[in-house]
Amino acid sequence: MEGAKKMKRIGVLTSGGDAPGMNAIIRAVARTAMHFGIECVGIRRGYAGLINSDFVMLETNMVRHILGRGGTILYTARCDEFMTEKGREKAVATCKMLGLDGIVAVGGDGTFKGALELSRLGVPVMGIPATIDNDIGCSNYTIGFDSACNTAIDCIDKLRDTMQSHERCSVVEVMGRHAGFLALYVGIAVGATSVLIPEHPVDFEQDIVQRIQNSRLAGVTHFMIVVAEGAGSAFEIARKIKETVGIDPRVTVLGHIQRGGAPTGRDRETATRMGYYAVRAFAEGRSGNVIATREGGIVEIPIEEALTMKKHLQMDRYEILEAIAASGAIHKN
Ligand code: ATP
User: Fold this and answer.
1) What pLDDT is stored for residue 332 in this prediction?
2) What gap in Å lies between CA 162 and CA 88, rounded to an integer?
3) Gap between the Cα atoms of 134 and 127, Å rounded
4) Torsion angle of C-alpha atoms 128, 133, 138, 140, degrees rounded to 10
5) How far does residue 290's CA lie from ligand 1's centre (Å)?
6) Residue from 45, 78, 182 to probe ligand 1 pocket by mutation (most atoms less than 8 Å from CB)
């Protein structure tokens, strides 16, 4: 089936957690399909839409003015039924019923696992990485990361104003699941006192207590501790700071606010390129790949291989943060 005939109609779905820029991908997929003379069908609610035949034709009007909109017009969902053989059979039946020659699946690793299953059942697929966590091994960059970083930075800048006025300590929990990409980037960008990430064991005494105490001696009156959700609970860290340092930190869990909002320029631009390359691959007879970024360019990686790839946090960023934060806490007697 793969690459054997010219594609006439493809589907696009967004699955897993939403990320700013998903709409920009949908638009690029629909418009590029049009460019290559392929019809495009939007599948609603991820794989659930394939099972339940929940779809919408993506004509030009449907994707107008969505480039800069957060969320996903196709909705997104996690679908347990698709994890079963029966569920996947229903999904394949829908692909046949709709005459879909291929599916562009937008989401994270789970979404790509689902896409791999579809391709094993004879449906050509292409994957596009979109998650604010930036934790997909095969791609340097995932759509939504830049927007989420900027949202978190904006929130923390506002928190800093009030922490500075009241001379307080703030403990802010940011998303990122099991990875510290978001927390480290944000921590550097807001000039955090300390950043706690899952990739680096926390030495509470050295990384937090001494840093705050030295900063105080150097005349600093407010402190910003950024915690990745995968590195521990912000409430627990605040409780320990209160116990050991004797100050009463305010806790803010940024939560889902990081997944919303208009995508940044970087996300819109990269999403558009990824959407274009996914459909172009179909038009040129290729499938079964994830569209990924590498050194600024776009590459295609077979899904099976993509799912085995691991991405490691660049620890030099942690060293930079440490060096800058620690030297800000140096005091002269
Ligand atoms: P996020 O990074 O936001 O969590 P994700 O794509 O990794 O995104 P998941 O919830 O892991 O999110 O997966 C999304 C959906 O993909 C699942 O609800 C399910 O429908 C499908 N899926 C995940 N894993 C598999 C699998 N092993 N086989 C078939 N389908 C799967």
Assistant:
1) 58
2) 52
3) 15
4) 100
5) 15
6) 78
Query: CA 298, CA 140: separation in Å to the nearest integer?
Result: 10
Q: Domains in the chain and their CATH numbers? A: 9-144+263-306 (3.40.50.450), 148-259 (3.40.50.460)
CA distance 27 to 24: 5
What confidence score (pLDDT) does residue 4 get?
A: 53
CA of 55 to the centre of ligand 1 (A): 19
Interval 113-126 mean pLDDT? 98
Best residue for ligand 1 mutational test, from 13, 76, 113 (most atoms within 8 Å of Cβ): 113
pLDDT of 265 > 50? The answer is: yes
Q: Is 316 exposed, middle or buried (0-12, 13-18, 19+ CB in 10 A)?
A: exposed
pLDDT: which is higher, 87 or 215: 87
User: pLDDT digits over 81-113, tens only?
Assistant: 999 999 999 999 999 999 999 999 999 999 999
311 has a pLDDT exceeding 70: yes
Active site residues: 133
| 80 Cβ neighbours under 8 A, 6+ residues apart | 87
Per this entry, what is the length of the chain? 333
What is the chain's mean pLDDT, rounded? 95
pTM for this structure? 0.95
Q: What percent of the chain has pLDDT over 70?
A: 97
Q: How many CA atoms lie within 13 A of 224 on its CB side?
A: 24
Tell me, in angstroms, the distance from the centre of ligand 1 to residue 239's CA. 35
Sort strands 102-107 and 9-14 into parallel, antiparallel or unpaired.
parallel
Q: Considering only CA atoms, which of 222, 232, 166, 167 is closest in space to residue 199?
A: 232
Which ligand 1 atom minimizes the distance to the CA of 48?
A: 20
